[in-house]
Amino acid sequence: MGKGGAVSESVVRKIAISYAYVAVWIFLSFAVIVYNKYILDRKMYGWPYPISLTMIHMLFCSSLAYLLVRVLKLVDPVSMSWDLYLKSVLPIGLLYSLSLWLSNSAYIYLSVSFIQMLKALMPVAVYSIGVLFKKEAFKSETMANMVSISIGVGIAAYGEARLDPWGVILQLGAVAFE
């Protein structure tokens, strides 16, 4: 804090930049969701190959990372052994790809709003998988919160006009892999 309790200009600038990054991230996330829905929905563009859309996403992310690290040198490269890469990076990349593929596949069968609602089950999945693999201690209070989230999603799902069981299975699979 500066004189008289005022916040310094540099702190305000950092906060403004952080909020700008968040706003850009939210907008781009929204744009990708709407784009995926348009491309994959049978009543719109109707592209029937969600795996190819996932491959395009992964190619774009890889190309952008290569550009930022190797060409523009805006990000310092990280040195890692092949062993560490195979044990850490590769499994995460594969799981992320599976999550993207299943989520993109769900756009064929479900509405965007319903998919976003199912994504609210992410904390339930993370906690449950953590308990299952003994990385998280089971707490009845936490489980009560998880059950309340699940009940809320179930109540919201009850009124869904385009409830397709296969789409729900795909999206829940995406949540599990994520």
What are its keywords?
178 residues, mainly alpha, 3 domains, 7 helices, 72% helix
How would you describe what is shown here?
The chain has seven helices and no strands. By secondary structure, it is mainly alpha-helical. α3 (82-106) packs antiparallel against α7. The mean pLDDT is 87. The protein has three domains: 9-47, no CATH class; 49-79; 84-177, no CATH class.
Could you give the order of the helices and strands? HHHHHHH
Number of helices: 7
Alpha-carbon distance between the two ends: 41 Å
What is the mean predicted local confidence, pLDDT? 87
Helix content: over 70%
Describe what is shown at a glance.
With 178 residues, this protein is mainly alpha-helical.
Detail the topology: elements first, then pairings.
Blueprint: H1 9-40, H2 50-71, H3 82-106, H4 112-118, H5 122-132, H6 140-158, H7 165-177
